[in-house]
Write a structure and sequence with these properties.
A: about 130 residues, mainly alpha, about 70% helix, B: about 350 residues, alpha+beta, Phosphorylase Kinase, domain 1, Aminoglycoside 3'-phosphotransferase, Chain: A, domain 2, two-stranded antiparallel ribbon
């Protein structure tokens, strides 16, 4: 866990990551002419933003995903859950719906740090 | 800060290129200009201007990167052959020019260079391409119809095929094989594989030449429309529906989500262009199956790329980030499954 309490260390780890991100975006990237290096550095700046957002996700968000997983049964690892799915344990409609809900919330959790704009878009599709 | 300047074409490679073209044409050859293009991770691409005898030639060089080839990607010789057949069938594809396959060295070929925009995000958003976008889905359908009419006899034994399996079963088997090589297993993949396996479309009437990566981002677009179909490295023999579905995968809509074909048009426009150009009958439920399958494969590829970084084989923040990107594709895959179940 990244310490975010300014009484322990200041600036916080998030503020440091933000500073590096700003540096890349405003100073480094404009100076790069090699298109490939430029793209890779844009990606690096994005990834720093992901790390900053992930550190700020609340435990409540995580708990929501965990609760949906617990509702599926006792699966301590993804491998165990995969094996159960492969064996048909979630073929019945009710079990399938519960699995679907868990997998969707897990993807949404990952999207909150990776690409919140994507999540917003798919939750608010343009009206027809 | 000092400028990070663009890399130069290595002199040994420049010498190799001019020698190959000189030997093939019998003309004097001069390299006038070389600029790197932002290419894929498995290939080096350059924009080259050559003087060949009296003629200036605008070319693109596609060259193997070395060891880190994608498992299912074609060799340069196979890609060269596919481009040749495509051009003969009237597909708008770059004319392949000279192939060089040195033993123990990195293979490459030169093809004609066309002007236009290929970066997907720009194709979907640039105001200057608005008129081109209006007809693009139909043009894509037309090009696919031509691709799917390439005589398979020309490329049997050259391009990979599904073997004794149906194309759908083959795609699932390939996906399972790819997952087996990964250090992680996502339950969403098991769920999608089970859903897909229960709904496999029947084998098409005959196998067709399938482009394998036909989407916005691999198309060269100019203000007057589609100029060229690029990136043939995943061409294979298979089910035409695979090519009709791939450009609809949400990631290739570049945020213009409502336009299901590449963020530029509707499936109806794609199918209309396909039918008008003599393409075969379109089974929309087969397209829907291949779209879900396409999302699954793309999510797995993202993790395959991340693994290249994580194992140290190919350290790259770009590859690492693709593992996280898979969340977008997984979300979309689950959404499609829900809509179709």
């Amino acid at each position: 866990m990244i310490p975010t309490d300014p009484s322990l260390a200041h600036p916080t780890a998030q503020e440091l990551l933000d500073a590096v991100r700003d540096h890349l975006v405003s100073r480094v990237i404009p100076a790069i002419t090699d298109p490939r290096l430029r793209f890779q550095t844009l990606v690096a700046a994005h990834v720093l933003g992901v790390a900053v957002r992930e550190a700020s996700l609340t435990p409540a968000m995580r708990d929501e995903v965990t609760a949906l997983r617990d509702a599926l049964g006792e699966f301590s690892t993804d491998d165990a859950l995969c094996a159960a799915i492969d064996a048909g344990a979630f073929d019945a409609p009710a079990a399938r719906d519960a699995l679907h809900a868990y997998l969707t919330s897990r993807a949404a959790y990952a999207l909150q740090s990776w690409n919140p704009a994507f999540l917003w878009r798919v939750m608010n599709p343009p009206s027809e | 800060m000092r400028e990070t300047s663009a890399p130069q074409l290595p002199p040994a490679l420049a010498d190799e290129i001019t020698a190959v073209v000189r030997d093939a044409t019998g003309h004097g050859v001069t390299l006038l200009r070389a600029a790197p293009l932002a290419g894929g991770a498995s290939m080096e691409t350059w924009s080259l201007d050559l003087q060949v005898g009296d003629d200036p030639e605008a070319l693109v060089l596609r060259r193997d990167m070395g060891a880190n080839m994608h498992l299912e990607a074609l060799t340069r010789a196979q890609e060269f052959a596919a481009l040749k057949s495509a051009a003969a069938q009237g597909v708008r594809a770059p004319r392949p020019r000279w192939l060089h396959t040195p033993e123990g060295g990195r293979h490459w070929f030169l093809m004609d260079r066309h002007e236009g925009e290929s970066v997907g995000r720009r194709v979907v958003k640039l105001p200057a391409l608005a008129a081109a976008r209006a007809g693009l889905a139909g043009e894509m359908g037309e090009q696919l119809a031509r691709i799917h009419r390439i005589p398979t006899a020309e490329l049997t034994g050259v391009l990979p095929g599904p073997g004794a399996r149906t194309p759908a079963a083959h795609a699932l088997a390939q996906t399972r094989d790819a997952i087996a090589t990964l250090p992680v297993r996502d339950p969403a993949w098991s769920y999608a594989l089970r859903w897909l396996a229960a709904r496999e479309p029947a084998a098409p009437e005959g196998l067709a030449v399938v482009h394998g990566d036909f989407r916005v981002g691999n198309l060269l677009v100019a203000p007057d429309g589609l100029r060229a179909v690029l990136d043939w490295e995943f061409a294979h023999l298979g089910d035409p529906h695979e090519d009709l579905a791939w450009p609809m995968v949400r990631d290739w809509r570049f945020e213009c989500d409502a336009l299901r074909v590449g963020g530029v048009g509707s499936p109806e426009a794609l199918y209309q262009g396909y039918r008008d150009a003599g393409g075969g009958a379109v089974n929309e439920s087969a397209v829907a199956w291949w779209e879900v399958c396409g999302n699954l494969r793309w999510a797995v590829i993202c993790h395959t790329q991340a693994a290249r970084h994580l194992t140290g084989a190919d350290p790259s923040v770009e590859l690492a980030s693709l593992g996280r990107k898979s969340a977008e594709i997984t979300w979309e895959m689950l959404d499609r499954i829900k809509a179709l179940t």
